[in-house]
Amino acid sequence: MMNVDLAQKLLAAQRWHHDFEVLPGLRTNGAYNPEGLWNELHLPADMTGLRLADVGASNGYFSFSAHRPGAAVTAFDYRHRDNSGFTLLSLIQGVDIPHHQVNVLELSPEVYGQFDIVLALGLLYHTPDPYRALVNCASLASQRLLVESYCIDHRLPEALRVEPVMRFLPDPERFPNQGQPNDDPSNFWGFTSVCLKQMLEDVGFAVDRIRVEADRVLADAHRVGGNDHRLQLAYQCFDHQPPTGDPLDPAAWTIF
């Protein structure tokens, strides 16, 4: 590990999102303390032999936390590791975790493989296509998928809280005072907890546990199957089947 005085100098010069202890007594002093959420994930105390993907890794708190109990961690973020604090933390802690700069809408198991556990924390509401983002995260998860997101249950009448509702969040710079959390222009959607649960079920997962606290929702799910036909309808094209034989014969044509 790096000398504490040098580490403190490097940390203090940067703006952090995750606020956590990097070395004993030394914190990033970020805007958000993720330690409570880490405890709520209920991950195994010993993750030796488990492959874990941290999608939307940001500064890297969850990636480094999962590495310590033995998980083989791979991090994904739309920022390069040099520009998210991830490389700096690797340097300070002397830990090298694989990191891919990729947008969640471009993730695929064909390129990156599958993982026993996938974390998608504080992610879905930052993407304009949250269903596609969830599909991609789910495609990486061979067993368990944990999703944490902005929740709008508290903003709705009671009758709507039990409905699978999504609420669009317009750009706060152009449309102020529309309820956007933190006036953050990267926020696109809010979800009811029922909506998130049904989306997870729709992509082939059973929700074992869902927790709503204030404006956040955490869902813990495991894979039970898939829905390839629905995903093909959403994001793919059907294979071309040209007419066979006489084009005036009705049997020559295939109509999807």
UniProtKB/TrEMBL annotation:
This is DUF1698 domain-containing protein. It comes from Chloracidobacterium validum. SUPFAM superfamilies: S-adenosyl-L-methionine-dependent methyltransferases. It comes from the Bacteria. The lineage of its organism: Bacteria, Pseudomonadati, Acidobacteriota, Terriglobia, Terriglobales. Pfam families: Methyltransf_9 (PF08003).
